């Protein structure tokens, strides 16, 4: 899962600001819908510091590209860092697989090693083998007809494990594979730098990363693929248990194209060559003899009875077809395993498609309401989805699945529900998952075809909005993207979904206090962040911070300045201007105040502390200004009139941080990274919700 892409210059800046680790963990949790163990969070932080201090500080071109991924494997969660550059006509890629563990040793199983860290231990695929596979996966995607030269290297970095004879896990394998990855232990940073030098010494990181994405797309369209870490682990585990005569049951659950059949085929090929007997059952079959390895294709009412037919039983299960009966079977298997003392492995596989294909299939599956994947948008330029109100498919296009959907599957325009039973869900999902480059649906129900095509068109329009947003740098429209006439005409429901999310996070009372313009700016910022992130994480995210800052200036300016002016004018009449600080008065040509109020549009976040007469440390900067604002806060503004000075000091601190960290930086020459934008949204609106916190303390 790719979590971060940028230049080394920005990467180093994010490390120094001590925010890269938090961002990576947060993104992983939000996108995988799983929580990261605390020790993994510390591992990310420790590794980033090692890379900064010992690898990149004096050895990398600032324009070199860097990509960070967390490999999703249930047993060992390792971090993959790719450095990418273009120099002298060559695209250079060096991949580091960073593995935690202070002690790493071989097991007796093929490919599997034991990782240990203090009192915790886990097993995983051999790091050198895995990183060789990672490099080979890129190499196979290189276009042979391309004039571009591409160099790929990979290594495993055991950054917390010192070298010793015991930890020397370089070894011969029973199934020969060309090992091309290098291995580095803790304190091998100088050798690691030399290994990385071809990529670190080149620039054009953005161009190199875009080339890498193109290579990955090409690799995904080629027939066959190398096993990933999780798949290889299961193959080795099955083979090892059969050879040792152990009794073990495996439940391999996963979507189509996740590698369930490939795992079984690879294990079966080796075991049958060694003379082991294998039998395959359908869900309804009853076994008649005992064998070494049994495979049960999909779970059913006879599964528990089938478990007695072999020492090693591998059960496959499509993760989108889990009915209530399937859950009952899973529970019965787990209960029987506990009773008999049988080791039970239950693995949920990830999809083995390209990022574009994977996103496209997950998106379509969610729109058809087959399963809720919390799917991200896909790129329609690289994955085709279209629907026809016909039952006769066109001629097949290479990589595009033609799927016929019968009359029993219908879309209800009034409720927005796609109606089908669980068997139809499983069948349709299996069919659409054959699409590597796209899916064409041939629907007997005309409404279903219109619905799918409408969703695709809406997605394309959202991408168009992102491109318009990029061209302008930030929305110059007073209402922002979400409030623009074009946006409202295209799809109001998109804004509604974001507004509901914002309202819930911001707090309903505080959200109701916002003006329509501010709501639109905040919704625009949230949309822009999500779509820019999918578009390219290396882009300038200044527009996101500008939108949020505008909402802050609008709402706080109204309460701290405009209504304060009303309060003073009612109290002092036309003489109220003399009660204001000089900073909000017009000046003559010599810079002296002329006791005329500046235009409201010129009031910024930087003006707020002068109006309040107090700074971020609680010091009174203007005695008469503070006295008047304190009176206003007590009689008109604050809900709680105790500890007024402490409350307003806290507000001044919040306003100052928004001004310095987000507003000023985004409005001027400095580019804002994806991390800046995420922090801005979380600080002001979504998590710590500091603007909402201020509004909670106000009466209006």
Describe this structure as you would to a colleague.
- The structure is a single chain.
- A hairpin with a 2-residue loop joins strand 3 (79-87) and strand 4 (90-98).
- The protein has four domains: 2-220, no CATH class; 229-348, P-loop containing nucleotide triphosphate hydrolases (Rossmann fold, 3-Layer(aba) Sandwich); 379-417 and 427-472, no CATH class; 480-696, no CATH class.
- Helices cover 47% and strands 18% of the residues.
- It has a six-stranded mixed β-sheet with strand order 1-2-3-4-8-9, sandwiched between helices. Strands 11-12-13-10-14 form a five-stranded parallel β-sheet, with helices on both faces. Strands 5-6-7 form a three-stranded antiparallel β-sheet.
- It contains 24 helices and 21 strands.
- Mean pLDDT is 81; it is low at 172-177, 473-479 and 485-490.
- It is an alpha/beta fold.
